[in-house]
Amino acid sequence: MMETKTALKYKNLPNGEPFDPAKMEDVIQSVLSGQKQDERFYKVKQFLFQVKDARRRVEIIENQILYRQEAMEYIGPSYSDMPKGKGGFKSKIESGTAEIVTLEGRLHKAEENLARVTIIVSDAICRLENVNQQTVLLKRYIDGKSWDCIAMEMDNSVRWVQKLHGRALPLLEEIVLEDER
After folding, report:
1. Where are the domains of the chain?
2. Could you say which residues of the chain have pLDDT below 50?
3. pTM for this one?
4. Cα distance between residue 123 and residue 12, in whole Å
C-alpha cells in the first residue's frame, strides 16, 4: 500500500510505469463501453427469458386452479339459515367454482401469451446463420434444457456449447435491435 502512495506521489503507476492521462482515458472508455455492452446483453437475455417467464406464469395459474380444486373436495355445502350480507346466499362451492372459472380465463390468456412469445423468440433465433448456435439457443431458451443436457444431445462438451452460446448472443442482439427499429 505504501508503494502505491509513493508511486502516485511521483506520478508513476504502482507497476513503475509513468502515469499517462491519455492512456487512463482509454482505460475508462473501455470500461464504460463494456458496461454498455453488458446492458445490451441484458436486453437480449431479457428477450430470451420471455419464454421462461411466460411458462412460469402458466404453471402458477395451473397450480392455483389445482389448489382450488383440491380445496373444493374438502368443502361441503353450507346449510346455515343465517343471512350472508348484501349479496344474498352464496355457497362456498359456488364461490370456489367462480374463482376456478376466472382462473381458467387467466390461464387461457397466459397460454396464448406463451405461444406468441415462443414464436417471436424462436423466429429471431432461427434467423441466425449458424445451425449449431440456433440449436443451442433453442434448446436453452425454448426447451429450457440445462447446459449438460444440451452438450450431451449435441455430442459436445459443456464448455463448447457455452462458447457457441456466447458467440450467438451478439449476433442475436443485432437481430433483436434491428427488429426494434
Report:
1. 22-180
2. 1-2, 4-5, 7-8, 31-32, 35, 88-89
3. 0.66
4. 54
